[in-house]
Amino acid sequence: MTDQDPTPALEEAGAPAPIDVGQVMDALASVIDPELGLDFVELGLIYGVEIDGAHVHVNYTLTTPGCPIGPAVEEQIEEFVGEVEGVDSVDSELTFTPAWSPERMTEDAKFALGF
Question: 0.85 cut: is pTM over it?
Answer without folding.
Answer: no
